[in-house]
Amino acid sequence: MEEIWTEKYRPRYLKDLAGQQHVVKRLESFVKNKSLPHCLFAGPAGVGKTTCALCIAQEFFGNSWKSNFLELNASDERGIDTIRVKVKDFARTMPIGGSFKIIYLDEADSLTKDAQHALRRTMESYAATCRFILACNYSSKIIPPIQSRTVIFRFHPLGKEDMENCLKKIAKEEKLKADDGSYKAILHVAEGDMRKAINILQTSAALDGKITEKEVFAATSHADPERVKRMLSLAIEGKFKEARKELTSLLFEESLAGEDVIKEIYSQTVKLDIDDKKKLQLIEKIGEYEFRLTEGSNAQIQLEALLAQMALAGKN
Q1: What is the sign of the dihedral through the CA atoms of 263, 264, 269 and 271?
Q2: Contact of 184 with 217, CB cutoff 8 Å
Q3: Is 233 in the same domain as 192?
Q4: Range of 194's domain?
């Protein structure tokens, strides 16, 4: 692909960040007052943590933001030497056209404990010339001394309405033909991850013609929810042969992995219009068979056994 749309359509200002207004409102007050504490951005992937940090840098420093902003991915450079060398060398130099610099550490929960303790001392020593923004998926993996030195901002998965508006804006700019079913499919697969949603849209757009729901599921190798729902309904009604035939089609004709199928089975089981007690029993069985799959068991045998359990539950 010629360009990555996630970079091309990245917002430049905090006000343009969709779906995280509870975070943006607090950060805008810091930008307005020309002050910024050390920050900890916690939340799932693809919800705007890195974009938010870049927007802050551009609002503080304008066109010179690249000279005052250092971005490191802690999962690549997670040792104590990174903190002692790269971070300290950048932090000890004076900012250009501003009162402080910004160091952004992505995936900070991947830093070793020793590196985090070294970072704590660095945050104290260079607080006059440097601000740290740490981003992580799990804030519990950040040591308490660092958490106490930062203001914590919790990002949540983006809402479907915000994501759909962004996707339609991109589709309009790129002159794509996409129906409503395709947007629904993208949002279902992305699960609140905007970066993933944009990449799915770009992958689907690489195919000629109109983007449809079927093309989205084909491009992402994701089980079609309607087909899985039909398979489950057949199993619960006692029509095991028909349900098994649908499963075989998903595994061999669609070339889906067993883990992908059982994940969608869980999603559809939660939505089934059946007795709650029976639904609890089915979810317990799904968890058991999902564990067997992760341990390396044969996907076809395990999923057929799960369908058999559902057929027995429906019969009872």
Answers
A1: positive
A2: no
A3: no
A4: 160-220
What the block records as the tokens of 218 is 């084909």
Distance CA 233, CA 229 (A): 6
- Which CATH number covers residue 288? 1.20.272.10
**Residue in the structure block whose two tokens are 């491009």:** 219
State mean pLDDT over 147-155: 93
Using DSSP, state whether 178 is helix, strand or coil.
strand
C-alpha 136/C-alpha 41 separation (Å) is 6
Lookup: tokens for 14: 């905090």
Question: Which pTM value belongs to this model?
Answer: 0.82
Residue 194 CB contacts under 8 Å (≥ 6 apart), including other chains = 18, 19, 46, 47, 48, 158, 163, 166
**Tens digit of pLDDT for each residue in 243-286?**
999 999 989 888 888 998 999 999 999 888 888 888 898 999 99
